[in-house]
Amino acid sequence: MIKTKITSLVIGLILGAGLGLYGNIDDDVMAAKTDSQTTKTVKQAKSLSQQYQYKEAKSVLSGHKGTTVDHLKKSINKQQSKLVTWDDPTKISHLFYHSLIVDPGKAFSSKQAQGYKDYMVTIDEFMPMLNQLYDNGYVLINFKDIISIDKQGKVTFKPVKLPEGKKPLIISQDDVNYYEYMKNSGFADKLVVNKHGDVKNQYTNNGQKKIGDYDMVPIIDTFIKKHPDFSYGGSKGVIAETVIMGC
């Protein structure tokens, strides 16, 4: 008798599922996939809007629905309505650096000490500058954000739009090639790519090689990961190339 009841129950469940009495499993799977896609889309749109790419953020949200999406669209529209146009290139600030000094003790006791004192800054000096720039509303932009070049080579300035209180800034670094005379003087050796695909520096200290943030490129990369709103559309520093001893 018990066996018969169990058999009937199993058959009933199978028939019920087949008739859709317990919901459509395929629909549930599709709904879960849709929710997951929307979550990823919202995250991407937020990331774009954090870096002032409002048009691109709205494009990403196009075709997606939901309360979260609607709130984000309204927020983006509100931010866009209050943008300030920077249409005068003479008002855009530019800061220029050479390679950063990792170990001041070595740098300032080397043969090139006076030159380093005149033209270089240490990492310990650079980091407070970077934080101060961020705190004062500066946003990194690149040359490609503000100029266009036609087929004839004519350069035209392109205005950049930022929220009120934000100011465009270009940072450049010269001679990112680590000269021979800088070896064992408290500077990084070279740029390398670590196992995660991030650009870092190799720094050698007393024969021991270390990989980390020992110059502007990886330092700014790390800073922008923490403060994405310090960058306009992913813009970072500008590396000034040189033909001396490679680049």
Strand content: 15-25%
Average predicted local confidence, pLDDT: 87
Low-confidence stretches: 27-33
Q: Biggest sheet: strands, sense, closure? A: 4 strands, parallel
Distance linking N and C termini: 86 Å
Count of individual beta strands: 11
**Helix amount, in percent?**
40-55%
Shape: globular
Kindly describe this structure:
By secondary structure, the chain is of the alpha/beta class. Helix content is 43%, strand content 20%. The protein has 9 helices and 11 strands. It has helices at residues 2-19, 25-50, 54-61, 67-81, 104-107, 113-119, 123-135, 143-146, 216-226; strands at 83-86, 93-97, 138-140, 147-149, 155-157, 160-163, 167-174, 190-193, 199-205, 208-212, 238-240. The strands form 4 sheets. Strands 2, 3, 7 and 11 form a 4-stranded parallel beta sheet that branches. It has a 3-stranded antiparallel beta sheet with strand order 8-9-10, covered by helices on one side. Strands 1-6 form a two-stranded antiparallel sheet. Helix 2 runs antiparallel to helix 3 and helix 2 packs parallel to helix 4. The model is unreliable at 27-33 (pLDDT under 50).
